Amino acid sequence: HLQQLNLAYNTLSFSFPCGFDKLSNLSYLNLSNAGFTGQVPAEISRLTNLITLDLSVNLFLSDGRPLKLEKPNLKMLVENLTRLRSLHLDGVKISARGNEWCKWLSSLTNLEELSMSNCNLSGPIEDSLQKLKNLSMIHLDRNNLSAVVPAFLAHLPNLTSLRLSSCGLHGQFPREILQVRMLQTLDVLDNEKLQGSLPEFHHNGSLQNLVLSGTNFSGSLPQSIDKLVNLTRLDLSSCNFSGAIPSSVSNLQQLVYLDLSFNNFTGQIPCFDLSKNLARVDLSYNKLSGKIESFKWEDLPNLTHIDLRHNSLNGNIPSSLVALPSLKRVLLSNNQFDGEVTGVPKVRESLLDTLDLSCNQLQGPIPAYVFELSRLSVLVLSSNNFNGTIRPRDIRKL
């Protein structure tokens, strides 16, 4: 009578036992990271009532002996599991070409979740997958697909999560995918030959995570990016974006993580005082200029990391930035900041562990407060115009 079986996250460390086919009423089977090794048995293909099947393996948690789908292969596993809505095989060694695995899966017309990361799959992503109209999640990251991203993905009306990172993707990314209204997560990280640009966004209350880092996306950020009202993570690092960072970015009130580093952005940094949830900001290695002292840094109480290195920022470093209660890391080196560094209130309560102000034009005495930062582990003040004296007993406080 058993209908659900969950043995996930154990250390069973032996090959699959026999007898799974006797559990004919199973609709839910989760053996992810249970410790099983070797070949996935053919018996599982006889569990025709399965709606959810999860055999995924996190290689960091395993003993290095992978699960395999060879005999039976993927085709033999799924051909009778036509009721499946959720299939998770991450880390299972399948080793199939695109014209094979796409065709084998295309018969699972009820499938909603497909997760096959790091399965030794190759491309291309065949059009036969578009038969799966109910797909809401497609996770194929860390496979050597070496393919273009098919346009039909934009026509999956329920698509909420698309992860294709580290897949050797190339060609032009279909902009229409970025306008799928249900889409919450798009991650194409580390596909250096993948080209594309951002479209004008219409109101989209769904997109939460947009990760294009390590691709060849280019162009400018559209002013309409603030239409992505639920965006919490925006990672466009190590791309070829240029132009100004639009002021509308500051309207993203749910934004927690912002990384635009290693691009060609110019102009001034917009004020982020409306983005009160911001925890990490990385705008390093761009061509940004202007001052940051007039910003209302005190309106960002959750900020823990800020990295503005290697730009052309100038003016004073505001004490309100360094004094933020949650701040742990401040990296402002290789800019043109000048003037004296003023004191910080409540310095003994500071969580700051890294402060890098090197390669600027700062002057005056080294501020005494830095020697009161009890959690500080990295302090870099080199290549400035500081003067005055430093007492050894002050350094010993650190």
Strand percent estimate: 15-25%
Rounded mean pLDDT is 92
Head-to-tail CA distance between termini? 65 Å
Helix content: under 10%
Count of separate DSSP helical elements: 4
Predict the CATH topology of the domain at 1-94: Leucine-rich repeat, LRR (right-handed beta-alpha superhelix)
Q: Any idea what the shape is?
A: elongated
SS content category: mainly beta
Q: How many runs of DSSP E, i.e. beta strands?
A: 28
Strand order of the largest sheet: 1-2-4-6-7-8-9-11-13-15-17-19-21-23-25-27
The CATH H-level homologous superfamily of the domain at 1-94:
Ribonuclease Inhibitor
* Rg of Cα set: 26 Å
Structure description:
This protein has 398 residues and is mainly β. Among the domains are: 1-94, Leucine-rich repeat, LRR (right-handed beta-alpha superhelix), CATH 3.80.10.10; 105-184, Ribonuclease Inhibitor (Leucine-rich repeat, LRR (right-handed beta-alpha superhelix), Alpha-Beta Horseshoe). It has four helices and 28 strands. It has helices spanning 74-78, 98-105, 319-322, 392-395; strands at residues 4-6, 28-30, 38-39, 52-54, 67-68, 86-88, 113-115, 137-139, 161-163, 170-172, 185-187, 193-196, 209-211, 216-219, 233-235, 240-244, 257-259, 264-267, 280-282, 287-291, 305-307, 312-315, 329-331, 336-339, 354-356, 361-365, 378-380, 385-387. The strands form three sheets. A 16-stranded parallel β-sheet has the order 1-2-4-6-7-8-9-11-13-15-17-19-21-23-25-27, with no helix packed on it. A ten-stranded parallel β-sheet has the order 10-12-14-16-18-20-22-24-26-28, with no helix packed on it. Strands 3-5 form a two-stranded parallel sheet. The longest helix is centred in the N-terminal third of the chain and has 8 residues, at 98-105. The termini are far apart.
